[in-house]
Design brief:
The complex is a heterodimer of chains A (about 270) and B (about 650). Chain A has about 270 residues and is mainly β. Helices cover about 10% and strands about 55% of the residues of chain A. Chain A has helices at about 1-20, 245-260; strands spanning about 30-40, 55, 60-70, 75-90, 110-130, 140-150, 155-170, 175-185, 190-205, 210-225, 265-270. The radius of gyration of chain A is 22 Å and the shape is elongated. Chain B is about 50% helix and about 10% strand. Classes of the chains: A mainly beta (about 270), B alpha/beta (about 650).
C-alpha cells in the first residue's frame, strides 16, 4: 500500500509539475457530481417481496462525487466516491430454515424493492485524451480501479409470500395481493468488491467554470468476496438446491454485479 | 486583399497613380468618386480592377513603364473593366460556361473551355477599345498605347536588358575571373503574336491590331508623355524598382535581385539600400547552398532570357567554397564602408560563421597573397628553375629510395603548377589574402569551428543529435511577458470543402475577442494587430501588418537558421511594440460525413511564435482537434497556447 501511494504521489505531483498543463482556461482541478444509470433488470410478475408491484423501471441509479486533477494535456487522474442503493434480485426464495412456506424453485427473476444493500465504493480513474486534445476538454477514455463494500444491516425485515390476485393492472404498473405472508429477519450481510472498469466519455464546456459530461463505463475485471456466512440471499440461478449449496451467497453478489455492469453516466463539472 | 498588408496606402506611388487617375477622369467626377486606386507590392507586372471600384497596379508593372502616358492607358483599360462590370459579368458567365447552362448547354467540356477563353478575350478587347476612347480625351500621345502593349509583352524580363558587367562582384582584393561568365546569352524569345489558346488575355499582336483598327486616324488632345512632372514619374518608378529588389529577396529570387541591383547601381552607385540588398542576396544564396537547398533559389539557366542569363549561369556554376568567399568578402567590405552599422555587421558575422562551419574550406588553404600577385610570382618561379634538370639531380643524389620518390612527387606537383596557377577555379583562395595575412581571421574561423563542434558534441551527449533548422516542436513555457498577436486567421469550410465566407469572417472577429479575453486572464502584456479591427486612421498599424506578413512568409519559406531580409524593418517594430515575440495563428474548421453518413466536425489549430531577435521559430504547435470549433473550445485551446508561451518552467527534476 505504501508503494502504491508513493506511485500515485509521483504521478500526481512530478508528472504534473513537468507537464504544466493549462487545464480548462487555467483551471487544473474540477469536482464533478455524476449520476450513473444501470439498465433495468428483467422484471416478472411472481414476486416474493413486501412490494408486489410491477413497475416500469428503466434504470437503477448510482451517485458519484469525483475530484479530478489534470496532469498533462493528454491525461488526468480522478478520485471518486460512489453511493448506491442495491435492490435485491431473486428468482425465488428458499426459507426452509425459517418456516414451512412452500416456494417453488422455478420462479422467474424479480426485483425486490426491499431489503436494499447499501453499497459504497471508492475509486481512482486514469483518464486519457486523444492526441491533440486538451484535458479535461473533449473525448477521453479511462481506466477505473476501485474498491467497494455492500452491507445489509442486522435483522433487516422482509415480508415474503406468494402472489395473489391482481388489484391494479395498467401498462405501467401492476399490483398484486400478497398471500400467505410471512415476515423474516435477515442477518447481517457484507460483500466487498474490487473492480476495474473502462470509461469512455466526452465533456462540453458551457461556461468558464462549468462543463457537462456524458459517457459510459464497462466492467473489465471484478472480484467479489463475502466475509460472513448468512443463510439468506436473493437467488438468481434457477434449479439449484439451496439446502445443498452456498449459492445463496451469490444471490446478493448477483445484485451487486448487476449494479456494477455497463452504466450510462452524466454529470456536471465545476472547474477551479 | 486590401488588408493583407501587400497593398500600399497613402505612399508616393499610390498618390502618383491617383493623380494620373484624377487627370484621366477630370471630366467624370462622379465616376472618379466611385474608384479607388492602390499599389500592390508584387513583382508580377499587372493591373486589375474589382467590382467594388478598386483598381490595383503592381509595383512590378510600374517598374517596367517608360512614361506616364503608358500608365494612363493602363488605367483607362482598368477603369473600363469596372464601368462595364466585366468582373461580375465575367463571373456569372464563367459559371454558366463551366456548368454548361443557358446557351452553353449541350456543348462538350472542351468547347466550353474554349468559350471561357474566348469570352475573357472579348472582355479584354472591349476594355482596350473603350479604354482607347477614354485615353483619346487626354493629352497623352497615341503612340504610347502601342508602347504600353510592348511593355506588357516583355514584362516578364527585368526592367532593363543591359549586358552584365563581369567585374561587378570584383573588389580591390578579389578578382573573379571573367571566364566564369559566358559570352553568350539566351535570346529573348517572346513574340507579339504568340499562341493564346487557353489564355484569358488575347496575344499582344491581336490586341495591337484591334487597337490600331479601332483608333483609325484619330488623335488624342496632345503629345505629352508626361502631364505631371517627369521627375515625379522617375521618382515613383525608382521607388518601385527598389521595392521590387526587396521583394525579389523576400521571395528568394536572389539572382534576379542581384541583376536588379546591378541595373540600379548604374544610376545609384553608392546607395546603402542597394549595398545592403546585395549582401542580403549573396547571404541568401550562401545559406541555401550550404544547406543543400540551392535548387530552391536558382532557376535552370536555359529558362532565363536576356542579359541576366550570364549571371544565372555564374551562380549556377559556383562551388560552395567560392560562393561563401564571395559573400563573405562583400559583407566584410561593407562593414568597412558602413562602420558600426549593426545590420551589415549581423550579416558579416553570420557569413563568417558559415565560412568557418559549412563552407568546406580548410582555413589553411587560404592564401596570403592576392590572386594577381600569385599569378605573377608563380610565373616567375616556374621560369627560374628547370624541372628536368632537378629530376636528374635527384636521381644522382645519395638520397634513399623513399626520399627520392617523395622529392620527385613534389617536383611533379611543381611541374603541373602552370596549370594550377592559371586555373581560374581557385580564385577564391586568394580573395581573403589581406585578412589572412594581416588579421586574425584564421584564428577566428578555427575558434568558431571548435565552438560549433563542442556544441554539437554537447547536444549529442544530451541526446539531441544536433537537430538543425526546421519546423520542429520547440520548447514550451517560454516565460514571455509581452507578445504581439498578428492577424489571427479563422477559416471555416463546408461539407464540400468550399470556404464558408460568412462564417469565416464572423468567426475571425470572435477569434480576436477570444484573444483579448485570454490576455486579461493571463495578465499578458499584448498587442493584437488584426486586419479586421483596423480603422482608416490605423495606417501605421496597417503597414506594420504588411511587414509582419512578409517577414513570417520569409521565415516559413526559409525553414532554417537564417537572418530574414526584413529583419532590419522588424527591429523598428520590436522597438515599437517593446517585444521581440510575435505570434501567428490560425483555426481551420472542417466538416465531413463519417460512416453511416453522420456529419463530423473537427478543426486544426496552427500557431507559431517567432523571436525577432533571432528570426527563429521559438514555439510551434499544430493540433488536429476532433471537436467542433465553437468559441468556448477554441478559447480553451488558445488559452493553452498563450499559457505555454507566458508560463515559466516550474520544476526541474534531476534524474539520478
Amino acid at each position: 500500500m505504501k508503494h502504491i501511494l508513493q506511485i500515485i504521489a509521483v504521478l500526481f505531483f512530478c508528472t504534473q509539475a513537468l507537464a504544466q498543463p493549462s487545464g480548462y482556461l487555467g483551471k487544473n482541478n474540477h469536482i464533478q457530481v455524476m449520476v450513473g444509470a444501470v439498465p433495468s433488470f428483467k422484471h416478472q410478475s411472481e414476486v416474493v417481496s413486501s412490494t408486489v408491484t410491477k413497475r416500469l423501471k428503466f434504470a437503477n441509479l448510482n451517485y458519484q462525487f469525483i475530484y479530478t486533477r489534470v496532469i498533462s494535456n493528454g491525461f488526468d487522474i480522478s478520485f471518486g466516491y460512489q453511493y448506491t442503493h442495491v435492490n435485491g434480485i431473486s428468482d425465488g426464495v428458499s426459507v426452509d430454515d425459517y418456516d414451512t412456506i412452500f416456494v417453488p424453485n422455478n420462479f422467474p427473476k424479480s426485483i425486490m424493492d426491499d431489503p436494499e444493500l447499501i453499497y459504497h465504493s471508492g475509486y481512482m480513474a486514469l483518464n486519457f485524451y486523444r492526441r491533440g486534445s486538451l484535458a479535461p476538454l473533449g473525448k477521453s477514455w479511462g481506466l477505473i480501479f476501485g474498491y467497494g463494500s455492500a452491507t445489509l444491516a442486522e435483522n433487516t425485515p422482509v415480508i415474503i409470500g406468494t402472489k395473489g390476485s391482481t388489484s391494479t393492472n395498467t401498462a405501467f404498473k401492476q399490483v398484486a395481493e400478497l398471500e400467505a405472508q410471512k415476515t423474516i429477519l435477515l442477518p447481517e450481510q457484507k460483500i466487498s468488491t474490487a473492480f476495474m472498469k473502462l470509461r469512455i466519455g466526452r465533456s462540453f464546456p458551457i461556461s468558464d467554470h462549468l462543463m457537462i459530461y456524458g459517457g459510459v463505463s464497462f466492467p473489465l475485471l471484478t472480484y467479489y468476496n463475502s466475509g460472513n456466512m448468512t443463510r439468506f440471499g436473493f437467488r438468481l440461478d434457477q434449479g439449484s438446491d439451496i439446502e445443498d449449496s452456498n449459492d445463496w451467497i451469490l444471490y446478493s453478489m448477483s445484485s451487486l454485479k448487476a449494479y456494477n455492469g455497463i452504466s450510462l453516466e452524466a454529470g456536471f463539472r465545476f472547474h477551479f | 486583399m486590401l488588408l493583407s498588408g501587400k497593398v500600399i496606402f497613402n505612399d508616393p506611388v499610390t498618390i502618383y497613380i491617383n493623380k494620373v487617375a484624377d487627370y484621366i477622369l477630370a471630366d467624370e467626377p462622379e465616376l472618379r468618386k466611385k474608384l479607388r486606386f492602390y499599389t500592390l507590392k508584387t513583382n508580377t507586372p499587372n493591373a486589375f480592377s474589382t467590382d467594388q471600384g478598386v483598381v490595383l497596379v503592381t509595383t512590378g508593372l510600374i517598374a517596367q513603364l517608360e512614361n506616364e502616358a503608358q500608365l494612363g492607358f493602363i488605367l483607362c483599360h482598368e477603369i473600363i473593366h469596372y464601368v462595364e462590370k466585366h468582373v461580375r459579368n465575367g463571373y456569372v458567365e464563367n459559371k454558366n460556361i463551366t456548368k454548361g447552362r443557358g446557351e452553353y448547354s449541350g456543348l462538350s467540356y472542351r468547347s466550353r473551355i474554349s468559350q471561357l477563353s474566348k469570352y475573357s478575350k472579348d472582355l479584354e478587347f472591349e476594355a482596350d477599345k473603350q479604354g482607347i476612347d477614354m485615353y483619346l480625351k487626354s493629352e497623352y500621345p497615341v503612340e504610347e498605347i502601342f508602347s504600353a502593349f510592348e511593355v506588357l509583352l516583355y514584362s516578364y524580363l527585368p526592367f532593363d536588358d543591359i549586358q552584365f558587367d563581369s567585374t561587378f562582384f570584383n573588389t580591390p582584393n578579389m578578382v573573379i575571373p571573367g571566364s566564369f561568365f559566358p559570352d553568350t546569352v539566351n535570346e529573348v524569345s517572346q513574340e507579339a503574336d504568340y499562341k493564346d489558346d487557353g489564355h484569358t488575355h488575347p496575344n499582344i499582336q491581336r490586341r495591337m491590331d484591334k487597337a490600331f483598327d479601332h483608333l483609325g486616324e484619330r488623335k488624342s488632345l496632345g503629345e505629352k508623355k508626361f502631364v505631371m512632372p517627369e521627375e515625379d514619374f522617375e521618382y515613383v518608378r525608382n521607388l518601385c524598382r527598389f521595392e521590387n529588389t526587396s521583394i525579389y529577396i523576400a521571395e528568394r529570387e536572389y539572382v534576379n535581385a542581384l541583376y536588379s541591383i546591378f541595373l540600379l547601381k548604374r544610376e545609384f552607385p553608392s546607395n546603402r539600400f542597394l549595398d545592403l540588398a546585395q549582401v542580403k542576396a549573396l547571404y541568401g544564396l550562401v545559406k541555401y547552398k550550404n544547406f543543400s537547398r540551392y535548387n530552391e533559389v536558382t532557376v535552370k539557366p536555359n529558362k532565363v532570357e536576356g542579359e541576366s542569363f550570364p549571371l544565372h549561369i555564374f551562380f549556377k556554376n559556383l562551388t560552395k567554397e567560392q560562393l561563401n568567399v564571395i559573400a563573405f568578402r562583400h559583407a566584410y567590405d561593407m562593414t568597412f564602408r558602413y562602420k558600426d552599422d549593426k545590420v551589415f555587421i549581423s550579416y558579416y558575422e553570420d557569413l563568417k560563421r558559415e565560412l568557418a562551419i559549412r563552407s568546406m574550406i580548410a582555413p589553411s588553404k587560404l592564401k596570403t597573397m592576392s590572386y594577381e600577385q600569385y599569378m605573377l610570382a608563380a610565373a616567375d618561379t616556374t621560369k627560374k628553375f628547370n624541372i628536368e634538370d632537378s629530376m636528374k639531380r635527384i636521381d644522382d643524389s645519395e638520397l634513399s629510395k623513399y626520399e627520392k620518390i617523395r622529392r620527385k612527387k613534389e617536383l611533379k606537383l611543381l611541374l603541373n603548377m602552370e596549370d594550377v596557377v592559371y586555373s581560374d577555379k581557385e580564385f577564391h583562395l586568394y580573395a581573403l589574402w589581406d585578412l589572412v595575412s594581416q588579421e586574425d581571421l584564421l584564428d577566428e574561423l578555427k575558434a568558431i569551428k571548435t565552438e560549433y563542434q563542442d556544441e554539437q558534441d554537447r547536444l549529442w551527449e544530451e541526446g539531441n543529435f544536433g537537430l538543425g533548422g526546421g519546423l520542429i516542436q520547440k520548447s514550451q513555457h517560454l516565460g514571455i511577458h509581452t507578445l504581439v498577436v498578428v492577424d489571427p486567421i479563422y477559416e471555416d469550410y463546408k461539407m464540400n470543402d468550399s470556404r464558408n465566407h460568412e462564417k469565416s469572417e464572423d468567426n475571425k472577429l470572435s477569434l480576436s475577442e477570444i484573444y483579448e479575453q485570454n490576455f486579461d486572464n493571463l495578465n499578458l502584456q499584448t498587442k493584437l494587430v488584426d486586419s479586421k479591427n483596423l480603422e482608416s486612421s490605423d495606417l501605421e498599424e496597417y503597414n506594420d501588418l504588411g511587414i509582419l506578413n512578409q517577414w513570417v512568409g520569409e521565415i516559413v519559406d526559409h525553414d532554417m537558421e537564417m537572418i530574414c531580409s526584413t529583419s532590419d524593418q522588424m527591429t523598428e517594430l520590436t522597438d515599437k511594440y517593446q517585444t521581440t515575440h510575435f505570434l501567428f495563428s490560425g483555426v481551420y474548421a472542417y466538416k465531413y460525413r463519417g460512416r453511416l453518413g453522420i456529419p463530423h466536425n473537427y478543426f486544426e489549430l496552427v500557431a507559431f511564435c517567432i523571436d525577432a531577435d533571432t528570426d527563429e521559430i521559438e514555439f510551434i504547435t499544430v493540433q488536429n482537434v476532433s471537436l467542433k470549433g465553437n468559441a468556448r473550445i477554441v478559447r480553451a485551446y488558445i488559452y493553452d497556447i498563450l499559457y505555454q508561451l507566458s508560463s515559466k518552467p516550474k520544476a526541474k527534476i534531476e534524474l539520478p
